[in-house]
Amino acid sequence: MMDKTIDLDIRRQDTPYSPPYWQAFSIPYQEGHNVVSALMAIREQPITRDGHRVDPVAWEFNCMEEVCGACSMIINGHPRQACSTLIDTLEQPIRLEPLSKFPIVRDLMVDRSRIFSDLKKVRAWIGLGYP
Q1: pTM confidence score
Q2: How many CA atoms lie within 13 A of 8 on its CB side?
Q3: For 87, phi and psi rounded to 5 degrees?
Q4: Does residue 119 sit in helix, strand or coil?
Q5: Residue 127 lies in a domain
Q6: What is the domain range of residue 104?
Q7: For residue 93, is the peptide bond before it cis, meaning its omega torsion is within 30 degrees of 0?
Q8: pLDDT tens track for 71-97
Q9: Is residue 130 part of a domain?
Q10: Is the distance from CB of 84 to CB of 94 less than 8 angstroms?
Q11: How far is CA 9 from the centre of its chain?
C-alpha cells in the first residue's frame, strides 16, 4: 500500500525580471495540514517530485490568524489566505501562484507596499487610544 501524499505544483520565479516556471513537490500527508504547513514541510526538504534538490520556495506569513494577509496567494485559481486554507478541502495537485495584482519579489512573495502606502493616505487604521 502506498503512503498518502500531498502534491503541490508551485509557480516559481527567481527574480522580479526572470521568467516564471513550475516545480512539482510531494510531501507526506498529515491530517490538519494547511497550505502554510505544507510550504514549511517543503522548506525543510526542498526536493521536487522528480528528486531534484532546489532552493526553498520563497513565501510569506505572519499572524497565522487570517488577519494580516501576508500569506495570501492564488490557490487552485482563487485568491486565498494560506494560513486558513486546509489541504483536505483542496483538489490535488494543489496549484500555488503569487497574487497577480502585485509585483513579484520571488516565487510566491509579492511586493504589497502599495497597500500600506494607500492605507496611510486614507488613515485606514484603528488607534489604540494610548497617549
Answers
A1: 0.85
A2: 30
A3: -55, -40
A4: helix
A5: no
A6: 5-121
A7: yes
A8: 999 999 999 999 999 999 999 999 999
A9: no
A10: no
A11: 12
